[in-house]
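Hi support team,

I'm filing this because I wasn't sure whether my run with glutamine finished correctly. The job status page said complete, but I'd like someone to confirm that the output block is well-formed before I use it downstream. Pasting the exact inputs I used:
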Amino acid sequence: MGIKYIFITGGVVSSLGKGITAASIGSILEDRGFTVALMKFDPYLNVDPGTMSPFQHGEVYVTDDGAETDLDLGHYYRFTHSPLSRASNITSGIIYDSVIKNERRGDYLGQTVQVIPHVTDEIKKRIEDLTHENKGVQFVIVEIGGTVGDIESLPFLEAIRQFRYARPKNCVNIHLTYVPYLKAAAEVKTKPTQHSVQALRQIGIVPDIILCRCEIPLSLEIKEKISLLCNVPTVIDEHDVNVSIYEVPLNLKRQKLDDSLLHMLGLTAPEGELKSWKEIIHILSNPKKKVTIGIVGKYIEHQDAYKSIFEALQHGAIAHEAELVLKKIESSKVKSLHDIEGCDGYLVPGGFGERGWLGKILTAKYSRENGIPYFGICLGMQIMVVEFANNVLNLSHANSTEIDPTTPDPVISLLPEQKEIKEKGGTMRLGLYRCTITPHTKAFLAYGRGEIKERHRHRYEFNNRYKRSFEEKGFCFSGIWEEGKLVEMVELKDHPWMLATQFHPEFSSKPFSPHPLFTAFIGAAITYHA
Ligand code: GLN
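And here is everything the job wrote out:
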């Protein structure tokens, strides 16, 4: 079979969950035995989201090859086995950057360089690049960021129109829209969907399937109305879920979205039953115990800023058949213990800059002194180090040079090579690094092996000058990147579970294969609760 392409566009409003939809479609196709690769086009001009505030953009998801990408790639990772790399998230910034570089090199041989064909060709090339990089992939699912009608997404829509023109039998367009329920009128409204489909048609794209996001399941009558008025036979609803976003694949399957896709593309495949998704939903609906985790971070008010961490904690809870209660604590509002008390474990996530720092230090101190499980990630590890230096080693002014550049005890500091760097974009320690784990540590117990690789995104490092004084007081450096002699994991010897990582384990956790550190942390929190 030739490669099949599914393009997913969004209409009416943003934040409909296009990423979860794309990922769910990937998972139901995998369940039918196909291999899938997902990619996302983002129409903004930043080269990547790495330079954007989490308040603007939510989490930055990091791939193995060190690309800083959109958080939807995290959904792709959790729902499917799609390969993910730098090639999987393409922004207008990347496209224009390469078109302009080509122009400066003289590659266009005297032509006037234009959006059509040069920008659109570059966009189409990125889809082809993905298939060359991942030989054997049967389905490519392309999510187009933004909402139909946006000025900046036009080149992407024109590119996918042309892409399909060249492969009429191998492409399907899915349009995800919003069907609002008006309480006062007690009815759902289809007009915004009709307008959105009209807008798509105006630029030459005819959707094959309309997926309707809605609060409640749509009646057959409403689906038929949308179908008739939009001239699109296949209309499927994607209503709000009760238990978890992991219900979405089951919901789409129930409406036979996979059969429709296969039929449109002339394919047949053995039936699937989404067994593992059903198991996950069963566990989530019938928890045997409860665990409360406090997350103390400064971007907590943005729902998506710690997306992968929330998900990874959920995976850890699934592994223990426990209900997860998340207590989201805004670190800059922590004034006293009263603001944090009452959880079975604390997680301090990654972050940048000074705001909220002291609230996190207090969390580490409180967890350490009271034997409450603590899991620090990236900045959360640097917090654990500084708190220990301040209060156990009595280096009261010890700090990270990110927070206090003139500290007399820079226990966390920049490496000389990082000091040279002036540009902000893509210049942190990024992507996979090997880590050797010390035997007989909590880290070793969790992973069950001595060599791992994990993903990074940070500039500052533990300062090895202080290693011995930390060790003398019961601090253990349980993970080291041997080649670079850098600390990757730390833990406390005389504490039930206080462990932190310089890397980001949350990026590589899935509902069916929870990350071992999250499973261990939730296990420790359950023990503490009991
Ligand atoms: N700001 C810290 C650093 O750059 C931590 C980064 C993070 O938590 N991702 O090292």
